[in-house]
Amino acid sequence: MQFILGLVSILFAEVVRDIYHIAGHYWQPIKQYHLLHHKAYRRDFSIANMELYQKSQLYNDVPEALCMVGLTAATAILTQNPGMWLGCIYSVAFLIPAFLRSQGMLLATDLSHKPGDLVGIPAQWRVNRTYHWRHHFDETNAYYAGHFTSVDRIIGTSLALKGKVVAVTGASGTLGQALIEELSLQGAKVVAITTNPATVFKNEIKVLSWQLGAESELLSHLQEVDILIVNHGVNVYGDCSPAAIQKSYEVNTFSTLRLTELFLSTITASADRATKELWINTSEAEVNPAFSPLYELSKRTLGDLITLRRLDAPCIIRKLVLGPFKSQLNPYGIMSSRWVAWGIVALAKRDFRNIIITINPITYLVFPIKDFCQSNYFRFFTKREKIAPDLLNRDV
What we know:
Blueprint: H1 2-26, H2 28-39, H3 50-79, H4 85-102, H5 129-137, H6 150-155, E1 165-169, H7 174-185, E2 189-194, E3 206-209, H8 219-222, E4 227-230, H9 242-264, H10 272-275, E5 277-281, H11 293-310, E6 316-322, H12 337-348, E7 354-357, H13 361-381, H14 389-392
Parallel strand pairs: 1-2, 1-4, 2-3, 4-5, 5-6, 6-7
Helix pairs in contact: 1-2, 1-3, 1-4, 2-3, 3-4, 7-12, 9-11, 11-13
């Protein structure tokens, strides 16, 4: 029990640090000192000015650690539980290095600010360098978490959409238009990618026309995109003819894979690993019947291949696992596309990598198990080599 209380006290210390950090962006008495912390680093996290760095440690990091130490110690005294002192000890481990750095006696910075190129993608549960880089150089009023991402996930600051260029395929469809509306409300710069040039969008929406099989023509545009949402699809219902098989896999599977590799090829700079994302609508047909065999088969194949591609992807890939919503593809759908779009964005801002929105409770239970088991199976038994783009361009 004392060990559990100790872990709770550590989590409490991190919550205190995150709250102090958020206050540093809004509360004027400490905001000026927190700004020193941001000014002390270049974009590669190298120290811009040693004097400024030491001053930021003294007036930002030391008070932050003192706040952690004081509140965790007060909690331990009030509860009279020895285990609660673990959070205080944990906080002291931040206070001492911060003070030493402020005096120039310790030059090594903490792991979140280690200089150099970004290597991995933003971690989901624990703050790594790439995650924290976004707070400094992507959107300072988001990504507040210090070590655990829990506070960001709760308040919805794990992903900032304001000012991001977000492209949506299937933009002329019901969900595509709902996503465009919701993303625009979040301050994103939306690009509508559609095969239907007759569709009318609002004046501020940039529209790109494309044709199936000509995905490579979008490359120059995708280089400017921060988030690509692959949302197009087709449902042939009960048709099982050779032409229907060809169409289902070409639209639902292979065109998505081509766009996936095309977008991932644009991730060339260190910062791209932090700012770029790929969202793919795979559907809950991955694990549940959709009463349309070819839709299920093509979407299941897509979902499996995206799980495989995630293992070494250079950016975050989110799956949109959606239940039956009313649209041109499914006039019998139950959910509202506008509500689904709101849910997608709300969960993405809380860093859900598998965004499940459905009325079927079985999906919430079965999909995470399937995804966990399958991803680990792929991890153990594949070489994790990148899929060659030329393979995706071959005829089915």
